[in-house]
Write a structure and sequence with these properties.
It is built from seven helices and eight strands; from the N terminus they run αααααβββαβββββα. By secondary structure, it is α+β, with helices and mostly antiparallel strands. It has two domains: 85 residues; 164 residues, Beta-Lactamase (2-Layer Sandwich), CATH 3.30.450.40. Strands 3-2-1-8-7-4 form a six-stranded antiparallel β-sheet, sandwiched between helices. A two-stranded antiparallel sheet has the order 5-6. Helix 1 packs antiparallel against helix 2 and helix 3 crosses helix 7.
Length: 264
């Protein structure tokens, strides 16, 4: 039996005690045909005291149970709010020294400026190109591709690139196929440090080099992956970088949802 039920039982007991004492007091006063002596007066005062105290106890025990749940409900509400808030941030250990608020603020800088203007001429390829360009300003990527999901399909096609150089055009993929396809299916970012041989080669005026690290970032709207960003870098995507890009994905998904409402 919990405390709430116990207090209600005590309240009922106090109520019956109050009723019983009241009946006794009423009967004593009605049967008293003569004057009240000192002994009777003392008895009546005792009964009146019992009536008053039992009534106060009744009120106390009835009110108390509702004060306790109110506090618990408020606490539960706060926990729900914390859980809702946690859903909008990356899953980072509480023991981590990563400053989530700082990364959240930095992520806003990755939003393409064109997406904030709401120009009707601003297209998805323009959004993709500007997004990759913005990322390159704040993180040392050496090559990147932006894949967009085709309307009503599970196929993703490249609509933008950064520093991509190859005799072959980048190919698309289907949901669950290849590395970016698996990322789209799982709706979770993926970081790879052991890149398959000849998977990607960066060419510059100084020659060719193979990036050591890949990072795939899904953009999710309405519980569905609508785009995937693939980035290559010579720098490792550490935990702080991954957390930053998860915040970036949240911001880009919001911007993309407003831009491409017909495709969602």
């Amino acid at each position: 039996m919990n405390s709430r039920s116990g207090l209600k039982i005590l309240a009922v007991f106090a109520l019956f005690l109050n009723i019983g004492a009241g009946i006794f007091l009423f009967g004593s006063m009605k049967n008293s045909t003569t004057g009240i002596n000192h002994s009777d007066l003392f008895s009546l005062l005792s009964v009146v005291s019992i009536v008053v105290c039992s009534f106060l106890l009744f009120l106390l025990f009835m009110i108390a149970p509702y004060n306790v749940p109110e506090s618990n409900a408020q606490s539960g509400s706060n926990e729900d709010k914390r859980e809702e808030k946690d859903l909008s941030v990356p899953n980072v250990s509480r023991e981590s020294n990563i400053n989530l608020e700082e990364l959240r603020n930095r992520a806003v800088n990755f939003i393409p400026k064109g997406a904030l203007i709401h120009d009707e001429k601003y297209s998805l390829p323009m959004f993709a190109e500007e997004t990759l360009s913005q990322i390159s300003k704040f993180y040392p990527i050496v090559e990147a591709l932006f894949y967009m999901r085709e309307k009503g399909s599970e196929e993703f096609l490249p609509i933008g690139d950064y520093a991509y150089f190859s005799e072959k055009k980048p190919s698309g993929f289907k949901l669950g196929e290849t590395l970016p396809g698996q990322v789209a299916k799982n709706m979770k970012p993926m970081s790879i440090s052991d890149i398959p041989e000849n998977y990607i080669i960066v060419t510059s005026g100084l020659g060719k080099a193979k990036p050591r690290h890949l990072y795939f970032l899904p953009l999710i709207v309405n519980e569905k992956t609508i785009a995937v960003i693939e980035m290559a870098s010579f720098k490792e995507f550490d935990k702080e970088s991954e957390t930053l890009f998860e915040f970036v994905a949240i911001e880009l998904s919001k911007a993309l949802a407003k831009l491409d409402t017909k495709n969602l």
